[in-house]
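Suppose you are handed only these lines of text.
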Amino acid sequence: MNILILGGGGREHALAWAVMQNPKCDKLIVAPGNAGIAKIATCAAFDIEDSAAVIEFAQNESVDFVIIGPEAPLAAGVSDDLINAGFLVFGPSKEAAQLEASKAFTKEICDAANAATAGYGHFTDAESAKAYILKNGAPIVVKADGLAAGKGVVVAMDLDEALAAVDDMFGGAFGGAGAEVVIEEFMEGEEASFFVLCDGINVLPIGTAQDHKRVGEGDTGPNTGGMGAYSPAPVLTEAIAERALDEIVKPCMAEMARRGTPYQGVLYAGLMIKDGAPRLVEYNARFGDPECQVLMMRLGGQILDLLLATAEESLADAQVNWANDHAMTVVMAANGYPSAYENGSVINGLDALSDDSFNVVFHAGTAKKDGQTIAAGGRVLNVTSRGESLADAHQRAYAAVDSIEWPEGFFRRDIGWRAL
Ligand code: AMP
Ligand code: GLY
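From them, the structure of the protein bound to adenosine monophosphate can be written out as follows.
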C-alpha cells in the first residue's frame, strides 16, 4: 500500500523507519520530512495543516493510508477531512483531539469517567482564579487551557509565583491558549508515560517510557520538548500499568464513545505515580517526541499492522509481539536550545555509524546542503539504541553520540539516570 506520514521531526523519522520494515508498505511519502527521512522515503512539501492541500496530494499520489504525527493537523481537523474524503487515517478527530487541545475538556472527561487526577478549578477571569489559589495555597499548578507548545504550565512553589502566572495568562502571554485557565492540585511522585492505541472502543497498550524535559544534567534548567527518553519505564510496573488502564484510560475512552466522539489513534497518558497508584497529569493525542523513537525501536515493523487495526477498528483482534528489550534515545540539540540557536552548522560522522535494528540516528531537525548534513532546528538528532538491558542500550547510544562530530551541538550525558 501507499502510505503518507504527516510531520518532519524525529518522531516521524522513527515512524517512517518502523513502517518501512513492514512488507505491506510499498511506497512511503513523508511531508515535509527532513534529511534523515529522505534517505528512506520520498519527502514532499505542502502545508500539512491545510486539509485541502493534504487531500489533493493524497489523491494525486494514490495514497491508501495517512498517518498523522504532530498535534497541529489534528487540532486543525485534518483527520476528519481526510476521512470524509474517503481515506483511511491514523489520527483522532478534532473533537477527540480535544483531550490534548483543552485541559478543561480533559478534566471534564476525567470527572465523568471517575478517573484519578489532580483536583482542579476552571476559570475565565483572573479574580476568581486568584481567589481559588489563595484558598488552596501553594505549591499549586497553573495551566493555560489551550495548546501552548508545552509552555502553558507553571508549577508554582509559592503563592506569588502562582498569582503572577494567572496575571501572565490572562494578560495574553499565551495568546488564545490563556483565555481560560485550569488551576490544579500539585501532585507529588514520579512521572512516566503510558502509550495505548484506541480504535474507538478497544484499547491496546503499546509501551511505557520516561523522558527528560529539562535541558540540563541532573534535570536542571528550562523545560524543553525532551532531551532523551527510554522504554520501558521501570516505575510503571505491570501492576501499575494495569491500574492506569482500568481506572484511567479505559473509563475515559468509554466516556468519549458515550458522548459520540470516540477516540481513534494513539493516546499518550502522562501519569504521576506515588505509592503504587497512578494519577493522570495530561493526555496527548499523538506519540511523544522523543518517546516515539524508543517505542518504534522496540516495536519495529509490526507497528504498521497496529496502526491499520486502529484505523480499521479491529484492535480487538490485534496483539503486540514483545521482545524482552530496552531502548534509549539521546537528543542532540543546537547550542542555545531551548532559547535562540543557529541553524546551518555541519554535522560530521553520521555516515560511519551503523544503521540497523539496534542503532539508528533519527533526524529531528536536519537538512542537506552541498552534500552535507546541516542542523535545521533546535532538537537536531535522536541517537537511538536498543539492547537486552537499559545499560546495554545506554552504552550503545552514547558510543554513537561520541562518534558524531558537531561542535555547535550539545546533549545530556545522564539520560536514564533514574532507571539506571
Ligand atoms: P502538562 O503540559 O500538563 O504535561 O504539564 C507539564 C509538566 O508540568 C508535567 O509533565 C509535570 O511535570 C508538571 N505538572 C503538570 N501538572 C502537574 C500537577 N498537577 N502536579 C505536579 N506537576 C504537574
Ligand atoms: N516529549 C514530550 C512530548 O512529546 O510531549
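What can we learn from it? Residues 118, 141, 153, 155, 184-187, 191, 270, 281-282 surround adenosine monophosphate (ligand 1) (CB under 6 Å). The chain has four domains: 2-92, 125-179, 190-317, 326-410.
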